[in-house]
Inverse folding.
């Protein structure tokens, strides 16, 4: 992989089932086109506040459609998907720890993102508690659970997620997943094919 | 085409650029799978009222994304697309006349849907006025403009669109375009590939 080629940036919220599905597909797409991948968790709550919108499942018709569609889409891609008992997922600790782990080891972001997403949408675990998030981090990355737990209280770690979330919104991200390549934004699992066409043709 | 095979139902709002794009693509998909196509205009205003949502372009981030994305998607499919000067489009007369014309001649629905959509998103015309809608109807279908104009004041014609709109919402339609096949709903231009896969495999 040429690390000179511009990255595919993958914006996601850990509470998003569509984000989980895309997280299982995006690495192969980036690899096929020799692009590095950057994992960018952010907080959808901030986007909803700026947009004046509500969670998908709060809209009566869109909510019903989405619950059906998420499962249909997971089957389409042959991915396991369970509906978490606690929804929306409290994702702040998980998102903070992805940036923290990536700063220690760039390769950790992928492993940790998959670990959190699969905990939620495959194992049906609640990742809200700091201890749970720290344990998942330690298992996935080899970093110390105690260090991860301490990081969650670190003002710099907290500020980092706020900065990343603001940066995502300033760039125009308002949902999960969002992919950015060469300044172009693509929203949704159902745009992965178009994103790949963009990578192939360099735009149109 | 076997008219025994269940139809693909195409739900759309004449104010929707994504509906216009899908209207140019859906007939070939239905034809490839020997399915009749039924054109089902409805009023998005009713869906937004039931959902408690607002027009796409009223959301600051989603609105900006959509304006860019609609043009990008039209280029992707090599379709002309201009942004109408008057937006949202007042689509009530156009929608009423599609049902009215189809009742006179089932083949007229396709011709008239294309005529209205292309008037708005290719020629940039305002189709709000009853006279304009009636003239477009006459040109596209061969029905009399005076009869179309009279139909717009007919309580049965008015009631028909209300019934169709309520039926769409009751079925779960909340956006444009929406495709329904074998009881499965697919929302958006970006689901045409999945719809076609569903037609091919009969579901999954």
């Amino acid at each position: 992989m040429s690390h000179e080629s511009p990255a595919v940036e993958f914006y996601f919220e850990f509470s998003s089932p569509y984000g989980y599905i895309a997280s299982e597909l995006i690495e192969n797409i980036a690899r096929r086109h020799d692009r590095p991948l950057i994992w960018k968790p952010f907080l959808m709550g901030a986007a909803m506040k700026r947009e004046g919108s509500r969670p998908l499942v709060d809209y009566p018709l869109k909510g019903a459609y989405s619950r059906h569609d998420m499962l249909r889409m997971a089957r389409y891609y042959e991915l396991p998907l369970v509906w978490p008992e606690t929804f929306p997922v409290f994702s702040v600790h998980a998102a903070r720890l992805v940036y923290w782990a990536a700063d220690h080891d760039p390769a950790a972001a992928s492993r940790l993102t998959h670990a959190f997403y699969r905990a939620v949408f495959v194992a049906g675990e609640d990742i809200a508690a700091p201890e749970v998030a720290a344990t998942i981090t330690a298992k996935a990355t080899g970093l110390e659970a105690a260090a991860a737990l301490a990081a969650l209280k670190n003002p710099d770690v907290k500020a980092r997620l706020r900065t990343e979330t603001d940066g995502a919104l300033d760039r125009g991200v308002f949902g999960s997943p969002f992919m950015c390549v060469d300044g172009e934004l693509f929203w949704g699992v159902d745009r992965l094919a178009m994103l790949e066409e963009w990578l192939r043709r360099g735009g149109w």
